[in-house]
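Could you join me in thinking about how sequence relates to backbone shape in a protein? To get us started, please write out a protein record for me. Would you write everything just below, so we can both look at the same thing?
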Amino acid sequence: MKKILLSIALVISAGIGAKAQTPKTDLRPDETVLLYTDTFSGSPDPVYAEKITSAGFEMAVDNKVEKPESISEGGDLGDISGMARIDLYFPKKPNGQMIVVCPGGGYRYAASFREGLYVAEWMLERGITVAVVKYRIPNGHCTVPLTDVQNAFRYCRAHAQEWNVDQIGVMGFSAGGHLAASASTLWVDEITRPDFSVLIYPVITMEIGVTHKGTRERLIKESAVWNHHLADRYSLQKQVSRFTPDTFIVLCSDDRVVPAENSLLYYNALIDLDVPAEMHIWPKGGHGWGFSSEKHAGKGNDSFAYARPEFEASLERWLEAVR
């Protein structure tokens, strides 16, 4: 693995002409690891580490996105392609647990602030090591997001002893929840199998009328006959096995973006196969509330503020129990 010499000006220059994005925290990664390339340039992403390295994985499938990366005012990072990467955060007192975080975004972008950076901040306070995956969008190549997450697991497993980590789980939001559930059910070996899974308002199924339409269309499209097979493969309630990791699921009943039935399908599949599972459903909060109350307020009123303390206490208890 080689360190990449990168001037800060190089990254900032990529955002010229775009509205400056400023996360509501000074936290930045300890290390940014490029999964495939050894060059980090042309991205307006303000969240990266001074230390940038390359994992050196071979990119077997290119998603062929030719546009440069983009970012919204709220930190939604779009058009991720060859610079797929993980941001690593190391706590001062690691408790041995690590979590690979998959931000949501309908397989169109990664909500890298509220479902990435702010998640890392919460986890670090509890001694949990974090890898936020800025994964490639499918763009007609459905395998690439999961490949990126599995390569993140390979990299983290290889360095686990060095980082004082003995357990690595996965966490995902919305379409990132679909990706985390994919990692939990479609793993290829013990290295890529998560030790536990946390799914926040996740997309689970590809069934029309139940799934989130944009997630389905961007992952598998809808026109060709062969996509019926992919619809089954990526309807993850059908992929649950007795070897699916312990799972924690959170959602709100009034979610109008991803129907609650997604989580119910997955929970029932887990229970049917005696996989330990815990699910919390709050009556209000909608979709996309992420972490945390103060930082989410930048998008308007925090619809989930009333339940955040209870949610956070439940998640913290569960993470301690699953160790």
Remarks:
- The first helix runs from residue 8 to 13.
